[in-house]
Design goal:
mainly beta, 239 residues, single chain, 14 strands, 4-stranded antiparallel β-sheet
Amino acid sequence: MYTQERTAMSNLVVGGPVAVNSYDNAIVAALVENRPVMLVHAFNGGFLRPAELKDSVHDKGVKLSTALDPATKEAQGHLWYITPAGFFGQRPLYFLESAAGQVPIKPPAAGQTAAGRGDDGVPKPQRRRVTVHQKAPEVTADTVQVGLPDKVGDLWRGKNGAPEDTQLWVVTVTPWGGITFVPITHPDAILGFKDHAVAADSEVRVTYNWGGDFTGTVINTFYPRLPNEWSVPYHHVFT
């Protein structure tokens, strides 16, 4: 007999020591179903968006917005895909891809095979990814860019000839129901904000993880939310 309750998935572990249960619908949708989500900050309820929404711009970063304007919503600048990208030891790795400016791939001609097909056989669109600067977090300038692997600057292209390594993230579910992002190129760092200032239009940076583990701190925590859950309150009180 079916009910309106979701089936419990108590052993679904994504990238960390905390199991995802049936109530983390947006986390399951993002990491398992590969549905786009809003990444809402735990502290002030703002959401991450690319600084530039157009698909032709690859040298701009990410910022935190506290108001969802029509232009951003129309361009899907409030939505992100957390796309599976292999493993780091036993930890799954992901790309953090923007839905803004994605370019659909033309289907192949008859008799030809398209690269990058999804599970449903449809070619995956080109999406700009959040890419980490090789010298982050030591540098104080921009440490992230949103762009395609062959379009971002030289120091965002990866090390040792691997163009993807600066775009790979360990996504960890925190004990308080959010997620954090740790770049594999800098495992002692975490996705945070310039000067640790979580305000409107704060610029995203890769900063040192003073929390000391993969769960980070509240200032580096994001709550995935499906687009229809935008009105859900995000402020959590720790007791």
